[in-house]
Each structure stands twice: as structure tokens, then as C-alpha cells.
Amino acid sequence: MFLELIILVVAGLAIALLVLPFITFVRVHRLSKEFDVLAQRVEALEQGGGMAAASAYAPASAAVESQGEVGGRAPEGLSQAVREAVPRAPSPTPAALPPPETLDFEGQVGGRWLLYVGVFILLLGVSFFLKYAFDSEWIGPWGRVLLGFAAGVALVLGGLSLDRRGLAAFGRALAGTGLAMLYLSVYAALTFYGLIDRATAFAAMVAITATGAWLADRAGAQSLAILGVGGGFLTPFLVGGDQDASITLFTYDALLVLGTLLLARRHRWPALNALSYVLTVATLALWADEHYTDVEWRRTLFFLTLFCALFLAVLRETHRVPGPAARLASTLLWSTPGLYHLFALIITSEHPPAFHVYIIVFTLTGLIWTAFPSRPWLRVLVLLAALVPLFGYMPLPEGPSWLAANLVTICAVCGLHLMVLVERVSRRNEALTLADLLALHLTGLGLFGLLQQTLQTPFPALGGSVAMAIAALAGVLWLVFQPRDRLAALNAAALGFTLLALAVALQFDGRVVVIGWAAEGVAITWLGLRVPSRAFIAAGLTLWGAAVVRLADGYFVTPAAFSAIVNERSLATLSVIALGYGALWAVTRATPALPLATAVRKTLHVACSILSLLWVSAELHSYWELRYDVPQAYLYEQLLLSLGWGLYGASAVTWGMLRGYAPLRYIGIIVIGITVLKVFFVDLWDLGGIYRVIGFLTLGVLLVLVSYLYHTRHRETPTE
Fold it and tell me: Which residues contact 51 (CB under 8 A, 6 or more apart)?
């Protein structure tokens, strides 16, 4: 008993030493401010009103001095009495009052910093004393818990009192520390000492969370709300056991999110919503890592949908709050649909019927959400979110029994997006935006890709027919769009042209991707020239260039069943070259609409020339590589390569002269120069006998003819 009495006395003295300096500081600070304001007003009135103002203030000043000497504090009605006395002064034009004097550096150090440091040292001293008492077993488990709980309550009440007296930041920090001590006291009673059961601990922590939210609401303190919400989300993990209680956990978190939403809406605290979102995602991730099983997929998907709806409502409320904090919170909350979609795909991928239904419902919901008001770019994201996972990441189930369901899902997703575009043009009479046109191309190509992927195993010969069927659908769209939206009609025509090119390539079992990219790129370039639109032109030429790069990958690898000229590589190369010259022709005709026409034409000329040389070289190489068992086959290959390059260069120079187009002549001269270098540094050493004679004579004749053409040309009339 004696030791416990000593402990209580010491704790009381510590609390007194902690609280009394605050009270004294607050009262002295308020009295100092009263006298400073009073002196400033007297001085101002003396300057403005003379002796009349001074005499009017004399009784009030005397009252202040007498009260200060007798009681040490100003009466409650003093400032009101002074304010009532001021208007009676006969001052014609009162001077503007100066702002209240702020504390100088010395006042800051002596009046505030020393106080904060002293409080911190006192807290450390009390903590050290309590730890010593615990280690010496002066205080039992119940005493420790109750002492921590009492200290938490004292800090909360003291902090709120200081908040009301003007020390908002310091007081709220103390109150938040008190809330943390309350949580830790309950946790210690449950985990360390086993004094209470889990249900009691959970109820106590919920009560602390509710109390913290109530105090934050009354004081308008976001810091208290953050501590309360954080403690609320930690509560299930602090008192939880090894058993899975997903229904209780998710219901509790949903109520906590709803309460946080109401509190943040009331006080416009966007950071509170962001914290709630982060802690909810963390809770779901931790629970899934420990307890999720495939048996619970329905329940989990239900609560995921509930949380998604709640945080979409939170996002809507956060949008209404101005300021950078709200914008940052909104940016974070925009990840809600994406995370929900990812988790829903993972959960339903193991259950095919649910997977099919979810993809269709997700598409329909996304289209409704982006329709009023119209959000075309978000609609593109919805399309990509539905189609991209089906291309290998989370594919539709395989097998004959799932074929019909897969086809229905694919056609439903793409058909819904096409219906939105048709409805905008035909019923609303609105022109499609750039995002809508992009969605049109992605939908058509995505439909073809998914159908080709689904039908390739059971029906490998239907690829070309599928492409032609979708091309016919693009033709129908062209007919629908033509009277109302010319640009949309042109895009539908470009999509149909691309699909026809894919159909032709599939019939020859060719490089479908290369020809499709090149055809789509040229079609988009043509559309950009017709509109005109620099973005379309740049996108189309970039896509054609991507087709060229894709074509060049492994270009000189000879196929097993190689047939000269009539083969897959030749078909793809000649198609890409023809499409490139088609783009060149379109750019040439639309020169006034394209400021960079000259540079584009030169680039296309060079690219097509390089492709042509690659094709000639690859065909000769593959032809003779299969015949390397024939004597002197390598010599034939090198001779024909030199002759082929020389003929191509001479033809380019000749055509450039006839057309009066200098870049084409320059290309021919460069090719001839490369051929000459090959002849002197390769053929001169590798070829022998008649092959060297034929090569040198032929190249010499070509060079003489080219020189003759240059000498007989009197002047050049360029077309550019």
C-alpha cells in the first residue's frame, strides 16, 4: 500500500507539473494580449482625438491597472467595457489600428520553445519512471492498463482544452497521442496480459474509434480524425486471431468507410478519404494473402463490388472539394475501377460462367458510365480493359463446350462498343471524336483478333472468312456514317480495307500482322490527308514504319520450303512496298495540305528503296543457299547480287531523271556507290575467271550509261 501511495503521489505531481505550466502560460498569454490591444487603441485614439479620447479612456485604463494589481487577471467583461467606451470618444476620423504585435525571437524561444521542450522532457521523465515501476513490479497488470488508459484520457481532455484556448496544433497533437495510448492500452490488456477477451477488446477499440471521430467532428481537427480512422482499420488486426472472419471484417470496414465518407464530407477533408482508401486496399491484400480460398469467390466478389461502389461515391464527393489536396486524393481514388477490374478478373477467371458474365456486365456498366456525360477517352479505356486481358493474359476457356459462350462474349463486348458509336452518329447526329475513331479501329481489329484466336484451333481455315465478314461489317458502318459524318465513314472504309488485306494474307498463310499494320497505316495516312489531320498522318506513317521494322526481323532466314519469288516473305515485302508507294502517291497529291510533304516523301522513297534492295538480296541469298551443294553456287550468288544492285541503282537514276525528282536520283547514286565498293572489296577477291569478267564488264557498262544520261541531260526541272 505504501508503494502504491508513493506511485499515485508521484503520478499526480507529474500530471500537475505537466498541466499547470500550460494553464499558467495560457492565462498570462491572454492577459498580455489584452493589455497590448488596450495600449495600442489608447495610443491610436490619442493621436486621432486628442485629450477627449485620452479622458474617455482614463477610467478604463485605471480599471485595468487596478484589476491587474489586485487579482492578477483581467475580468471577463473588461474588453467589452473598453469596446463600449471607444465609440464615445469624439474622434472625427479614427486612425487605422496597427496589427497586433508578434513575438520576437526572444519571445518565441522563452515563451514557446522552452515550454514545448519542458513538456517533452516531463513526458520522458514520467515514461522512465513508469518503466522503472513496471520493471520493479510495483504496479500489476491491471494497474498498468488502467494507468495507461487514464493517461490517454487525460491527454485527450488536456489536448482538447489547449485546442480551445488557442494552441490548436499542440493540443491536437496531445489529444492524438492520447487516442494512441487508449488503443495501446486495450491491445496490451488483450495480448500481453490476457485480461479481456477478443470481443471486449474489439468493442473497446470500436468505442475509441467512435469517440475519436466524435471529438474530431466537434473540434474540427483532421489530425484526430486521421488517428481515429487509422486505429479503426487496425482494430481487426490488433484483436484478430488465426480464424477467418471475412464477413465481419468486410462489414466492419464498409461501415468504417461510410462513416469516414460522411465525416470527410462534413468538414471537407479529402486526405481522410485517401487514407480510408489506402487502408481498405491494404486490408483486402493482407486478408487475401492469409485467408482467401477459391471457395469464397462469390462472397469476396460481392464485397469487392460494394467497396468499389463506396469509393466511387467517395471520388464523386472529393471532386467537389477545391484545392491541391483534393486533386491529389482524386488522382489516387481514380485507381479504384482499375484495381476492382483486376481483382475481379483474377477471381472469376477460375469460374468460366462468371468470367463471361463479368466481362459483359463490366462492358455494359462502363459504357453507361461514360455515356452521360460523354467521356470518349474513358470509353477507350473501358474497351482496352475488356479486350486486352483476353489476348493471352486471362484467355477465354478452351474446348468445344465453351466455343459458343466465347463467341457470344466476344461479339457482345465489341458489338456494344460499335452500337454506342452508331447511336452517336445516327440518333444524336453527333460527329465522332478522335477517341471515338480510335475506339472504332480498336473494336474492329480486336474483334478480328479474338475471333481468330478462338476459331484457330477448331477451324483453322476460317481466318480469311472471318476477316472478310468483319470487313463487310465495316462497309455497313461506312453506309451508316456517310450521310452524317464523313470522317467516321472514311475511318470505317479504312478499317474495311485493312481487314480485306488481312483476309488476302490469311489465304496465303502470310505474315498477317505485317500486312495488316502496313495497310492500316496507309489507310490512316490517307484519312489524315483527306481531313486533313497531322495526328492521323503521323500515326499512319508510324504504323507503316512499325510494319517495316517487324518485317525486317529475321528477314534473311531461308524457310524450309522455299520457292523463289512466290513465297510468304515476297508477298509481305511486295505488299508493304506497294502500300508505301501508295502512301507516297497520296502525300504527293496532297502537298498543299501537308507542310512537311518534302521530308515525308523523301523518307518514304528511302524506306521503299531499302526494302526493295533487301527483297532482291534475300531472294538471291535464299535461292542459292539451298543450292550450296552445287559447285560455284556462292560465286553465282555474289555475281547476281552485284548485278542486281547495279541495275536497281541505274533504274533509280534513270527514273529520277525522267521524273525530274532529285531524291530518287540520289538514292540510285548511293546504291551504285555501294555496288562499286562491293565489287572492289568483295568480288575482286572472291570471284574469279569468267564471273569476275562478267561482273566488272556489266557494272562498267551500267556506269557508262548512267554517266551518258547525266551528260545528255541539259537541265533539271524538279517537280517539288
Answer: none
Q: How far is Cα 546 from Cα 534, in angstroms, rounded to an integer? A: 18
**Can you give the pLDDT at residue 340?**
95
String of DSSP letters for 193-239: S--S-HHHHHHHHHHHHHHHHHHHHHHT-HHHHHHHHHHHHHHHHHH
Residue 643: which of 556, 686, 703 has the closest Cα? 703
- pLDDT, residue 241, reads 62
Q: Does residue 113 contact residue 143 with C-beta atoms inside 8 Å?
A: no
Q: Residue 225: name the closest of 177, 297, 176 by CA.
A: 176
Q: Output the 3-class SS for 109-135.
A: HHHHHHHHHHHHHHHHHHHHHHHHHHH
∠ CA(137), CA(140), CA(141), 5° rounding? 125
> What confidence category does residue 153 fall into, taking pLDDT thresholds of 50, 70 and 90?
confident
Return d(Cα 231, Cα 215) in angstroms, integer: 14
414 by DSSP, 3-state: which?
helix
- The rounded radius of gyration (Å) of the Cα atoms in the chain is 42
Of residues 403 and 715, more confidence is placed in: 403
**Among candidates 239, 234, 212, which has minimal Cα distance to 223?**
212
Q: Which three cell numbers stand for residue 115?
A: 515550454
Q: Residues with Cβ < 8 Å from 167, sequence gap 6 or more? A: 22, 26
The DSSP string of 319-341 is: HTS-SHHHHHHHHHHTHHHHHHH
Closest Cα to residue 552, out of 614, 493, 461? 614
pLDDT band at 535 (very low <50, low <70, confident <90, very high): confident
Q: Which residues contact 201 (CB under 8 A, 6 or more apart)?
A: 186, 187, 189, 190, 238, 239
pTM of structure: 0.61
Residue 234 and residue 179 in contact, taking contact as beta carbons nearer than 8 Å: no
Residue 28 phi, psi (nearest 5):
-65, -40
Q: Which DSSP state fits 188?
A: I
Does the pLDDT at position 279 exceed 60?
yes
The residue that leads in pLDDT, 305 or 398, is 305
More confident: 177 or 255: 255
Instruction: Please count the CA atoms within 13 angstroms of the CA of 36 that sit on its side-chain side.
Output: 12
Q: What pLDDT does 641 receive?
A: 83
The alpha carbon torsion through 49, 52, 53, 58 (nearest 10 deg) reads 160
What is the spatial distance between Cα 567 and Cα 171, in angstroms, rounded to a whole number?
83
The pLDDT of 9-16, averaged and rounded, is: 42
Q: Which range has the worst mean pLDDT, 27-41, 231-245, 319-333?
A: 27-41
User: Tens digit of pLDDT for each residue in 29-69?
Assistant: 565 566 566 667 666 665 655 444 444 444 444 444 444 44
Calculate the average pLDDT of the chain: 77
List CB contacts of 503: < 8 A, sequence separation 6 or more: 463, 464, 465, 467, 468, 471
Q: Which amino acid is at 522?
A: V
